[in-house]
UniProtKB/TrEMBL annotation, chain A:
InterPro entries in UniProt: CT_A_B, Cyclophilin-like_dom_sf, PxpC
Keyword Electron transport belongs to the record: no
GO molecular function: ATP binding; hydrolase activity
Organism: Neorhizobium alkalisoli
Name of protein: Allophanate hydrolase
PANTHER family given in the database record: 5-OXOPROLINASE SUBUNIT C
Automatic annotation (TrEMBL), chain B:
GO MF annotation, one: hydrolase activity
ATP-binding in keyword set: yes
Annotated keywords: ATP-binding, Hydrolase, Nucleotide-binding
Pfam families noted in UniProt: CT_C_D (PF02682)
InterPro entries named among the record's database cross-references: CT_C_D (IPR003833), Cyclophilin-like_dom_sf (IPR029000), PxpB (IPR010016)
Domain Carboxyltransferase: 14-214
Record-annotated membrane-spanning stretches: none
NCBIfam families cross-referenced by the UniProt entry: 5-oxoprolinase subunit PxpB
Entry protein name: KipI family sensor histidine kinase inhibitor
Amino acid sequence: MTAILSIHRAGPLMSVQDSGRYGYRSRGVSTSGAVDRDAHAIANALVGNEPGAAAIEFALIGGSFSADRDVLIAVTGGNCPVEISGKPVHTWESHLLPAGETLTIGALRGAVWGYLAISGGIAIPEVLGSRSTHLRTGLGGLDGKTLATGDNLPLGEAGKLKPKTLGVPYLRSHAPICIVPGPQDDYFDEEAWKTFLRQPYRTTASRDRMAMVLDGPALKAFKGHDIVSDATVVGSIQVPGSGKPIVLSADGQTTGGYPKIATIASFDLARLAQLPSGQEFMFRAISADMAEELAIHAEDRLAAVIGGLKKRKG
Amino acid sequence: MSLLASSGTGISYPRIIRCGDRAIGIEFSDQVSETANLQVLTLDASLAADPIDGVLETIPTYRSLTVIYDPKTVRGAKLGEALLQRAAQGEIERSAGRLLEFPVFYGGEHQADLEDLARLKDMTVADVIALHASAEYRVYMIGFAPGFAYLGGLPEILHTPRLAVPRQRIEAGAIGIGGRQSSINSVPGPSGWRFLGRTLFKLFDPMRPEPFLLKAGDRILFRGIDAAEAAELDRQVSAGTAKLKEIAE
């Protein structure tokens, strides 16, 4: 019989996400998947799943859960209080959740997106090759919706339940957020570029899985704020007429009509997404060549963290 | 005609645009033009027939092709050169896509703009419908939402700016006008476009063997139908027996 994970209390923006839905951007289908890909992959690896398995993503606040068989669980993304049967356990480690016992996950500190992976993964049907939820179009996930109190999720078959912990630390810097200029960098004059790179910007509460609106000095596109719509990618920085940059995220639309001053370097997407609302940061422009080097380096680093997981004692 | 062309803006096309460290674009124009769109689709077809290592996805739009790649397999700089080279080789394929007939129920409860549009243009509702249904439209691209079709070919008289305040929910199948563009809505959602009617065919259904009804390059004729035919078609669509009519040329 299929094991079930029951949600007794759900945070406000909780959804099923895997590593994303690929191959359909030309048909208007967003990639979706975890906003913080690394944290999602590490959570899965900690419970013995494939890095791309379907897990639960939550924003700011977790919830409470139980399973009807023994499972391993891991919470990553940031740090938050986690309790099993009322006893605190650490994030970024896997723990046994005995059948029928309660897992509670509190509020993230200093981060926005959290992940709960369960051994066996969430075994809902795939839609267009992925279990990820695209909330705006109601695609994938559990009926295309955010998870709610009372929902039950089927779990896949799990291997041996061996709790693990990180052997190689996974750290994130506080350096400026790297961007690659373009595709419409030439819509902005030297003055606008100076502003963009020398003034701090702030994350705001206007953020979800589709996009985040930034606050800071307005950017004027001297060639205008309308282009003939072209493709966007995850990390595109659109500049609408308000001059306030909008960074597209995992669920972002696939095309758009605003000029895009730059693209967030892929290895810094999660670092930006995890900045708490209201936090100031700076942008730093790097070449596409260097961004590729650093992207490959970041992939290798993630592989080292996952490869370096070790048995947790006690 | 060669794929190499230049415009009068001082920028020569095609040109490479960078979209971060996992995507790169080749741009054929900064305007809506059928030639640029054909260049895009020709290059896209060439990449499908003879793929470049490391290319994961391609996204054809009005006037550019964006390519998603794995930097571990191919570097953007090299890929950009390859795309320019490929674009310079081919002849534009004129063989346009399928010609499809879409039955449209003009008016109806969700399409409040038909009468406003007639007033705005100082025409009768019947004239607006006749004019809208007289043109051949071309699918320039699929994007924004799953299966959403951006169409070109809207008669100039019908060009109308978007609404100042978007509506919260427009149904799937709604036929819209936004500026110079026309569209067929594929999933329900908010929109600032003006809507004239709806087609009963589903542009997107993830449970169908072929989830997407249209692709870029397809051409469309709209045919007005009455409430009785719409009701019958609704039944056929629900039963899965409705078939879009492809017009032989």
